[in-house]
Amino acid sequence: MKKPRLIIGGIVLILLLAGAAFVGARLLNEQGLPGLSLGGQGFSLGGSNSNGVHINRGDIQPAKELPQTRADINGVLDHRQDNSIFVGTGKVMMSVRRNIQSGEVQTPSSHDGPIVEVLVTTQTKIYQDVTMNQFDGPPPEGQKIQQILESGSHDGIGQSSMIYIWGRKMGDRFIADILVYSPPAFIKR
To answer: 152 with 75: CB under 8 angstroms?
Structure first.
């Protein structure tokens, strides 16, 4: 009777060790950084547990260059085509991975809302949000943060950039009057 229990216990132990080895190997080969969730009342870095950082929208004081109204469209860059950018809207989830061997950073993202086409014209004022550059680590929770903008360009909008648009709807797409983009805050340029 003890022999079958010993065999079953050994099999369970081997499966647990194999699972731990799998997880350990993934962590050694790809350094997984916390996820980023945007949407709702603010953004969270590090997931929904208490170890993450959460910043409420009200903690960020808009730059003087921006309208005092909420953006008409906000989301993540999905793709671009000619003078249009396509913005994935809704709740945005982003993860960041750095390959230890190559140092390459990948920022896959997803969204749960529709993709909106935004036309960028020569009249569009384009800004890059550099607010997070003032911090060496995560921004302080519960403190007011002044948004800082610099002149940007259509070509500066890259993979997983967050996009904020003020403009007008024309048919199926938006015409951008003001476009603000920010690369993921945890990627140093």
So the answer is: no
